[in-house]
Amino acid sequence: MLTCREVIEFLMNYAEGNVTPEERVRFEEHLAVCPACVNYLNTYRTTVRLGQQAFKPLPTDADESSVPEDLVRAILDARRK
Amino acid sequence: MSDLQVTPNTHADDAAYLAALRSGDDTAYELLVRQHGARLIAVARRLLQNDEDARDAVQDAFLSAFKSLHQFDGQCSLSTWLHRISVNSALMKLRSRKRRPEQNIDDLLPQFVADGHAAEPATAWDQTADSLAEQRELRKVVRENIERLPELYRTVLLLRDIEELSTDETARLLGVTLTAVNTRLHRARQALRTRLDAHFRGHEPC
Ligand SMILES: [Zn+2]
Fold it and tell me: ipTM of this predicted complex?
């Protein structure tokens, strides 16, 4: 049986499906009897998801698609030099 | 004057548009900056956490893109190509800067006792954020906690999870091995998890 330390150390590989079928079985044997590692796996996945969402503009947010005018000018002027 | 007809529908990957860029058409260049600038500033700002440096990085990125337009081979979209150049430009700026004092990542990684059990078994989160205000607040907390990660780890988390670069691309841009990218990404996510765990459970991490 894998220890919790081993499960947590290689969790990213498991969470992203980068494990062999044999490794997957060993992970799942552990998870079946260890609520702490199941909690860790779930909160790890939530962390990744929250990180990804945190920088995506909300649909209700104003469109921030304009570039500061002075920067546009600075870039275009620098190009002609 | 330019022959290029610029409409709101002018697509940056049109062959005609690319030809205009390559011929040095001023209007085409301006359109490129206006269409992609804001998104690229956001990318640079995430990596550099500083408006002034982000603007410099984006200016460098555009100038470097203008110079290498003839090398653009259409393997990816212009948008993706500019994104990669901007990430690279921001990383160069980041390397040239003095590192701030930062927390040791080990303090934010899970601890284990001798038999391999977690010193502090993980518990589930109640992270419901139903209202828009709650969602905004949670996003802010997550962003602030990512910003506070040690730079080595924060950078990999941003490149892999937020900018969605591949492990290969991240390793190449940072000049490190694939293993180093994976190790840093896992530690960065674990450290962020520790911080969010403290947030959801209402206490500060050690
Ligand atoms: Zn366990």
Answer: 0.92
